[in-house]
Target: Secreted protein
Amino acid sequence: MKKLTSRLAACALLAAAAPFATAGAAFASHGADDGTGDDSGGGRGGADVRNHGSCSGTTSWKIKAKPDDGRIEVEAEIDSNASGQQWDWVLKHNGSTSAHGTATTHGASGSFSVERRTVNAAGADALRFRATHAGETCVARVRL
Model:
């Protein structure tokens, strides 16, 4: 039942995000990230933390986390510049799997993003998003 609920939630998220994916993801190409991994920004709930980098191939990744109403909102994006690729992904929080699924890149940018809210544990929170496709691996990390 838990897997079914997770799959239904992932499908609903992808369906809701589809209209925005074709317009190009502002976070992927116009984010206010300077690459230090500690940018802070506005938004409800507190300052966000961002990081970005390259995968094992030509793909790039971005990750953002911020406190939100007693939880942590995490957004990770994979940008491969190739539409139609199916990626398997896992989000870990302090070493434990928080969410996992499969996503397909779409739009001219050939990207997908995953947004999840996770518990806000006491102390520092280490978040890791890992995505794989056809032998390429992306590992995005951020600490909040």
